[in-house]
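Minutes, methods subgroup
Present: GH (chair), OT, SY

1. OT presented the first of two proteins processed in the latest run. Sequence and structure tokens recorded below as shown on screen.
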Amino acid sequence: MDLFFHRRKLIRRLSVGFLLLTSHPLMASELFRWVDENGAIHYSDQIPPSQAKQPRAELAPDGRTTRKINVFKSKEERLREQQALIEQLRQKRLREKEIAQDRALLTTFSSLDEIDALYANRLRDLDSYTESNRRKLKKTRDLLEKTIKRRIWYQARDYTVPKQVTTNIKEYKQQIATYELLIARNTKKRAKLEKQFAHDKSRFKLLTRTAGTQE
């Protein structure tokens, strides 16, 4: 009986204490929690002006976090963060691409001689195609020169220049522009191929040497 009486008395006291505590102005309203520049944690029912733009948390009277307010960031800060994120993603894609290329390199070739043979064939085919375009370019230039001389011959005698002569000159000029473009593209393609060739050989040496060391 005494034990039951003491329990009821204790519960009543705790209830009164809780009511007094929650009725305090500081506890009845929302609390704010923030960390200053020194790392110290503060609690208050008001935010100092110096902390208005700093990250903080709003607390309920029972201590639960009801809302988190992130730090205010300027437009420049947000832009820098976006640029940093874009750069991280770019580096990640480059790394993934490099890993895939390394895997393909080790799967395709078993020696440096195989790499040399493949690129030698590709360069030979490219050079052959370029040389063919150069021959066509020279031939078309010769035809253009002869056709222009024919036009001059007609013009010098006040004759009407045949329509076919004018048409041929126009077509030859277009063909020359096309051949020159193809040759320029092939030249760039060859330079790119040589660069890729040097990179693949260097990378293959590194990968096989690393694999041999690990074994």
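2. SY then presented the second protein from the same run.
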Amino acid sequence: MLSAAPQCAWSQPLAYPAPPQAQFRQQLDARLPLAAAFTDDSGRRARLGDFFGTQPVVLMLGYYHCPNLCSTLMDGVLETLAGVGLPPRAYRVLGVSIDPTESAASAARKKASYGALVAHAGGELHLLTGAAPQIQALARSAGFEYSYDAASRQYAHPAGFLVATPDGRISHYFMGVRFDPRDVRLALVDAAAGRIGSPVDRLLLMCSHYDPATGRYSAAAMTLVRAACLALLAALVLWMWRVRKSGRRRAEA
């Protein structure tokens, strides 16, 4: 976080909802524009699709000189990924700047500031910059709605990230700046179509379902447990009714 930068008015009250013009409109299964051209943090020109193909991708949109929210989000994502317990190179982390004035040098400086966290997380981190048309195409496909405030020279944008499949389809959304490593692990396993993770992960996926409204997995097994408890209670009530009815018949006889 750049302490000398002006405060980002949009990112101060993290507990408050984002402004109406700054939100995720979830578009699950939408395809990202893999042909769009960007520049990576080394200054190399690359297509978005160059970062897909073999691994699921954790994708974040923001901008590198954001004084608060973007750094908090990146910290939260990298700290969470360090706790998911997946092997190195099991996924890629991709950040894309929504500010077309930012350069590869800006991306490189930001990446260097995350060196220790990236090493701890064990994945690959790539930070991209690009021209406005490519940025806007990516944001539209991701359902990432943002706006620029000329007075503060800052962007209003939502907090969160998405997980995409290796072929560039949106698989899951996560909202906020702090995340449950278990949820993220399951999302990565899910997005990779079972190509990573252990049989236990697949069992958990069978017992869980993804709630796109909250960006979390909720245990469907709990629903089954509640249903079983209700069924047991109903069976107990029926048994007690039959016992009482049988007792009355014997008394009348």
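Chair's summary of item 2: Confidence is low (pLDDT under 50) at residues 1-18, 194-206.
Next meeting: continue with the remaining queue.
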